[in-house]
Design a protein that fits this description.
mainly alpha; globular; Growth Hormone, Chain: A; 0% strand; 76% helix; 2 domains; 431 residues
Length: 431
Amino acid sequence: MTRSLLKVFESRKIAALLLLGFASGLPLFLTSRTLQAWMTAEQVDLGAIGLFSLVALPYSLKFLWSPLLDRYVPPFLGRRRGWLLVTQVLLTLAIGAMALQNPRQMLQLLALNAVIIAFLSATQDIAVDAYRVDVLEERETGAGAAVAVLGYRIALLLTGSLALILADRIPWQMVYLCLAGLMALCIGFTLFAPEPDPARTDIRPPATLADAVVLPFREFFQRSGLGMGLVILLFIVLYRFGDGLVGNMATPFLLQTGFTQTDIGAIQGGMGLIATIVGALAGGAIVGQIGIYRSLWVFGIFQAVSNLAYFALAQLGQNYPAMVLAINVENFCGGLGTAGFVAYLISLCNPRFSATQYALLSSLVAVSRDILVAPAGTIAKSTGWSTFFLLTLLAALPGLLLLPICAPWNKKPEMVGHSALETDEEDRSQL
């Protein structure tokens, strides 16, 4: 059984997705947490540091220019790897340019540099996600999602933790120069990545930019039906809602319970990260064994029930073994859910429009993670922590109740292939 579970991970494309996941995660903290640490060390005003959160806006708006990556094909390395190469070269230069900045003297120029990095990073994410959709077969979607999460988390660990350790020994400008070198190494990852199977992706891109904007929507709803398509989009928003509520308030809860910042940082950033990685890898293997739809049932139930670990901790108070257990259980089940859910999103995308469709679907996930959870603090303040964590269990139920409609237990997802695509002439005639 172990050999069977691990066999799906043994391929060049899965290794490439691990490396590209790392490349995708590398720039994220360089315009957020790591940059904030540098600005704090340079004694920049806290108000200005807070406003730098707006730098991350391109990650939420990336669907606006994702059609460009579907429509236009670089003259080298194909439609997906070509865009990866372009963005990674530009990211290397942009991150390297941060080594020329001084937060105390050129704050506006630093902000502009950070926005450019965020825009290029979001564009790289579009290309990585589209490549993953194009390259993976159905049996590989779980493994592909799992290793991408693993690579992404490793990058966050390097840029969020090791970069700070390095900054205690060398100037921040040199830290960013080292990270630019690491970004340059990612160019080799793109060259190593195999080209998607022509049988799946030997299809013409949309004929016009208007087609690239309109056809992904029309194709999705034509394939699913308008009613079913809207239900699927609702399911995407709700499936991880309960888990998002817990993730949003876990740190304030732990601090108010009496645990120190060191306690939380060591457990969440260390053991919690490992638990997430193990959960994602296990989830990828399980998806390969039982399929995407059944995995969504199992992982969704695990995600919901894992919230009870925090409920138990709220009852026990400042109990270190219970804290360790709660964090690890929640992160492990979150890793399971991530692997299964990413595999589900991949199954919904047409390779012809994978950049646009995946960008749009992932934006819906962000709605649940970043917007719907906004009232969580007010709810916790009104109800108390114990009741709040019980409410997060209830918040997971709407997503679970949609499973029989969106992911029937005894049905397999229909991976969209090029054979089902219409011609450009047929597409344009229906615009």
